[in-house]
Amino acid sequence: MKAFYFRFSARDTALDKLGFDRCWQSAIEWGCHEDDIYWDFDSGANPNRENYLKLIEAIKTQKYTEIGTPNQTRMHRDSVESQLFGRLLRKKGVKLHLLESRGELNLETSEARRQYSLDGLFAEWEYEKIQERNIRNWQDLRNKKISVFTPFGYVLNSDRKPELDLTPTVCLIETKEILSYGNILQEIICLAFELGSLNQVVKAVHSKYGICRFNSENLQPKKRRIRKKKLNPHTNNPHIHRKPLFFSVSGLTNLLRNEILIGNLVYLKGTERQVTIFNNHAPLMSITEFQRLGKIISGKANPFSAKGSVAKYPLTGLIFCGLCGGACYSAKCGNRGRQRNYYYFKCKNIRNNCKSKPIRSELVEAAVVEQLIKKHQQIKDLATKPTETKVNPQEVALSKQLVGLLNLPLQNEAIRKSIEQTKLEIDKLKSLEVIETEVSLSRAELLESVFQNPLYWETLPEAQKREIYHTLISKIILGIKDEKSYVDRIDLLV
Questions:
Q1: Whole-angstrom Cα distance, residue 11 to residue 281?
Q2: In percent, how much of the chain has pLDDT > 90?
Q3: DSSP secondary structure letters along 258-305
Q4: What is the DSSP letter of 72?
């Protein structure tokens, strides 16, 4: 009984789009039944392919006497796995047919086994060469600072750098307004700052552009109904229109966290080999706005659902216990006679033998304001003194290393790669210094504008005070003295 196996990877499909049909037709012409054709869409270097493992189990049960495949590369790209498969065929007495290369291969003879082993080695060698070429090509792209993929709202210009897509694409029926994807991206960012919630942004965008969810039966807008069982969104309530203007919260999260928005280009994001090229193209927003957008995405911009909570607990999330290191949470206690509530903070581990004591919120806030006023005065005093240029010792060392490399023979490829890598590291350090300077200047300007007149601070709404606190303060550490908690340390970001 005959069985046929072949596998295709994404690269194989891209190079030969008709290859799958050709392999299937070869199996039929060879006399194999459709039920006995096994195939996988996976790399040949992966031995744990689903249907390949099924074929091995069928061979072990001696279901088949002949196995066919177009050639060795359509079966394996791992010489070790190829040898194990060949030994299994010999043990079970199964014949192997390489239809496009060598025909029937009798593995009982030493000559056939030698040829089979060489074919497996060449298949593995070819795979390794492809991997090396891919790594080299991607490294060339990184060295040339070329972008390959762009998020929604961006296109690649003639220099292969991202720029805002301003091509008119969308026309609204009611207002006759013509928009581009770049305009819609800018609108999404403005909505995120205005609404403070990605769920609200998704609703607003879908409402404006007429994207809604439909029932699968009568194609009418879905009505809210109470059901005992949750419907399967992929069958009962499919989205009629998903692209290109359908957004989800997770999709917007990935879009708005992309550093392309601030002019950076990131390769191998989230890996140990991540490479960031700063100031690669024109930014759409500043670093401060990008960080503020990150807080909105993470849900830390408006963590309170109840109305008035911001006014009561503007320092929530910044206060930590100095004894156990635990976060302090906000609470209140009331006085029925005076009809007044008192708000305070206490350590979350207070029930787990932490010896800290609760502290009134107004005492903490008074200490914070006093510290911010002192910091404003220090910055004001430093502005009258001449500033000294700070030298980054790491940048100096890399510059000396670059000078030494440039004096070596540039014909050596390893030396050229080291020079490019050193230049990238120097550019990265300079860009980080620029970003840190920009962020620190923006925070210093905020401190100057708010505390230049202490009376102005009292006129600000509590929600704005909370935003300023979380912009200027890293953490507040509480201590305990004479059985009372006090503000021991305030770590500022400015």
A1: 31
A2: 6
A3: -GGGGT-EEESTTSTT-EEETT-S--SS-HHHHHHHHHHHHT-SS---
A4: G
Work out the average pLDDT over 31-54: 87
> What is the mean pLDDT of the segment spanning 255-262?
90
| Residue 396 shares a structural domain with residue 370 | yes
Q: How far apart are CA 33 and CA 344, in angstroms?
A: 77
Please indicate, yes or no, whether residues 95 and 159 belong to a single structural domain of this protein: no
Cα(209)–Cα(186) distance, integer angstroms: 15
Residue 265 lies in a domain: no
Q: CA-CA distance, 411 to 197, in Å (whole number)?
A: 55
**Domain co-membership, 194 together with 93:** no
Instruction: Provide the domain count of the chain.
Output: 3
Enumerate residues 6+ apart whose C-beta is below 8 A from 385.
Answer: none
Does this model's pTM top 0.85? My answer is no
Residue 354 to residue 347: CA distance in whole angstroms: 8
Do 100 and 160 lie in one domain? The reply is no
**Which of 120, 142, 164 is where one domain is finished?**
142
Note whether 427 and 382 are same-domain residues.
yes
CB 65 within 8 A of CB 95: yes
pLDDT average, residue stretch 389-406: 78
Residues 455-470: pLDDT tens digits?
A: 777 788 877 888 888 8
Nearest to 65 by CA among 92, 36, 94, 90: 94
Instruction: Phi first, then psi: give them for residue 8, nearest 5 degrees.
Output: -135, 140
| CA 270-276-281 angle, 5° bins | 130
**Domain co-membership, 181 together with 326:** no
CATH number (domain holding residue 36): 3.40.50.1390
List Cβ neighbours of 312 (8 Å cut-off, separation of 6 or more): 330, 332, 343, 361
Residue 24 domain boundaries: 2-142
Position 232, amino acid = N
Does one domain contain both 462 and 322?
A: yes
491: closest CA among 470, 480, 477? Answer: 477
Same domain, 81 and 27: yes
